[in-house]
């Protein structure tokens, strides 16, 4: 519980740092940023970008592979004890609540621990939550490039036991929403208190805005 609280606190601090950076980038974004994660417009050029990774089925994929879909991009790792499984469970629940609209959404779980997260490990892990979630891994350099594009913080802790693979990872815990053209729209912070209902409501607004109904 103490570690979870620390991760949540770190996520909140990182969210505040992102918001501050966006305020500097766009003076006109001050009012929007006061709304929190929904204030996406000033940040479209700040988060996201090209990546080249390996899907759980062994295919090489890029950001262009998923054009035409609303992406929910989350960085974590399969040995994560709390934040990752909780977030993926909430993403799965959000898809269920969206009903037919979920067909327009593609969740991506990108590992920040390629040393242990093979394609086989990623496949088994994500399918335990929802078959619609795609797990992506890659080389250390490929993961670092993707994380940099999404402004994701992660760091490997020192091993806690005799085995060198017995270690934890610190990482930010945001779910990034990218539009069908691959542009950043907003982010969700489940670790900061944004739950399934909030994510569902925001996605409904994005996928099927009232004017389009």
Written description of the protein model:
By secondary structure, the chain is of the alpha+beta class. It has one domain (44-212): Glutaredoxin (3-Layer(aba) Sandwich). It contains six helices and nine strands; from the N terminus they run H-H-E-E-E-H-E-H-E-H-E-E-E-E-H. The strands form two sheets. The protein has a seven-stranded mixed β-sheet. It is globular. It starts with a helix and ends in a 6-residue tail after the last helix. Residues 1-43 have low confidence and may be disordered.
Instruction: State the helix count.
Output: 6
Annotated CATH architecture: 3-Layer(aba) Sandwich
Radius of gyration of CA atoms, rounded to a whole number: 17 Å
Give the CATH level 1 class.
Alpha Beta
Pick out the low-confidence regions. Answer: 1-43
Strand arrangement in the largest pleated sheet = 2-1-5-4-3-8-9
What's the total number of strands? 9
Overall mean confidence score, pLDDT: 83
CATH superfamily: Glutaredoxin
How many discrete structural domains? Answer: 1
